[in-house]
Amino acid sequence: MIDKLENIINQRPIGRHLMGLDVGTKMIGIALCEGTHHVATPHMTIQRKKFSKDIKAVEKVIREFDVGGYVVGYPINMDGSEGRKCQSVRDFAMEFERQLSPDLIVGDSPWIALWDERLSTATVENFVDEAVDMSKRRAKEKGIIDKLAAQFILQGALDYIQDHKF
Fold it and tell me: What's the whole-model pTM score?
């Protein structure tokens, strides 16, 4: 099940960890939250190689933390339209859904929520620039920007979930 969070919020896996993914062409940032879905924590960055290798690295984290669902940053344009980058993320999500090991799927298919990530990287870069004693370029090379962007994406989705509980 792949859709925007607001459309599948009621099908989210309750009591299971969620994984936030900031999918880029060179790196995948990963963040996690506990089963109560309150606080996102940056976890790691994966250097992209080949999709089959990327998914194996992600699956290792899924197994370690018993992840039950995924929030993927969805790069909507500033005017609210969906461009080529959105299609690239949708393609990633569909391939992720197809290749995810069956033993890691809760229910019929993985719960994959797309979440508006506008300004996530810019926000994180500004934070790193102001609060961390490191250049943006060095932080990007070390994967710090990507895992913090994944945290920002996941936390935004968690806040939305908390605001829309019935």
Answer: 0.87
